[in-house]
From TrEMBL:
Organism (species): Halodesulfovibrio spirochaetisodalis
Name of the protein: Metallo-beta-lactamase
Domain of life the protein comes from: Bacteria
GO MF term list: electron transfer activity; FMN binding; metal ion binding; oxidoreductase activity
UniProt xrefs under CDD domains: flavodiiron_proteins_MBL-fold
Amino acid sequence: MRKKITDNISWVGKIDWEIRTAHGKEYSTHKGTSYNAYLIEDEKTALIDTVWEPYADEFVTNLRREIDLEQIDYIICNHAEPDHSGALPALMKYIPDTPIYCTKQATLSLSGHYHQDWDFRTVTSGDTLSLGENTLTFFPVPMVHWPDSMMTHLSGQNVLFSNDAFGQHYAHELLFNDLADQCTLYEEAIKYYANILTPFSPVITNRIQEFLATDLPVNLIATSHGILWRDNPEQIIEQYLRWSDAYQEDQITIIYDTMYNSTKVMAETIAAGILQHSPATHVKLFHAAKADKNDIITEVFRSKAVLLGSPTFNKGPLASLAAILEEFRGLKFTGKKASAFTSYGWSGEAAKLMLSELIDAGFETVDEGFRINWRMNADQRHDALQFGVEFASLVF
Ligand SMILES: Cc1cc2nc3c(=O)[nH]c(=O)nc-3n(C[C@H](O)[C@H](O)[C@H](O)COP(=O)(O)O)c2cc1C
Ligand SMILES: [Fe+2]
Ligand SMILES: [Fe+2]
């Protein structure tokens, strides 16, 4: 259903209350999400983006209730990922000749997905499209987060249709940031950045600086997921500049798994050592197989340093730690310190292997790690505590 967001812009997207994982099973969506599409009605009518494929028919049915589809003069496709372009095939069946404005890269990714001979009009940075009273200006943002990604600015009301940038997976019928729960909004925005955008941080810094240099005024950031930023929209731009610049809080995150709790007791003892050295530091512990993977990654994003603990299991770490390390490799965190520890029976390779993978993933390992044969005795508890103290002294 249409939701008016300004005099001549309507939200025509889909709020997905039931989704609990996005990107297949890669991203947990505890709060649901939305696929935000927008209809701009000026002398000309433009549709900005669509919705995810499973909602394509619903989207087109709803849109037909609002407007004669033939009245849509232009379609803007900011990003070809199926959560935004997924309803194009259903829509284009009705209006096959309507031009689609997008980047050159998007013509490739849209063709690669849908294999249709649509009327693509490729745009480059600064190109404009007049809608009558107001004008669209295109601002491609390649690798934020696909090569085809683009933002589109509308003059007059000064709306930035930012697509995936500045979004959050957060279903909310009231749409606007001043009407949302502020804690949830912040948590979902940082989780989204940490899990999806971290690998592109250097690019994000540059693209934001380039956008700010255009001096295009922004009164509203209309994202493609979740909440729209109308109250102080600069706040999320400034936050992205902080997050993209090797972001850290005063936090150390310990991620462990355990079969018989030996490694868990090590984790808790090391945490006590960290707090002994730095009583005001946030030390957070997560069981790698029990906590949500994306929540763990968000906490790592916030951290100055991480510690990975696993029993040695068939000469390596448990699969939950291997999975986290694989995530780290792709996310390309920068400026974070790390170490690893293991409880082992006879060979004890897990700590060394995790250290080597941490190095490959771009972490700075600060020591040789820590090993305990079977379970800790009283002396070894003291050693673990001391390991925590020394780790903290190398981090702070
Ligand atoms: C299926 C299995 C495989 C194991 N493989 C190894 C191994 O390859 N090398 C080693 O040093 N210890 C190995 N161990 C011993 C564990 O590392 C040891 O029991 C450890 O203390 C368990 O820690 P936890 O109490 O945190 O689960 C293995 C244990 C199990 C149950
Ligand atoms: Fe995307
Ligand atoms: Fe998206």
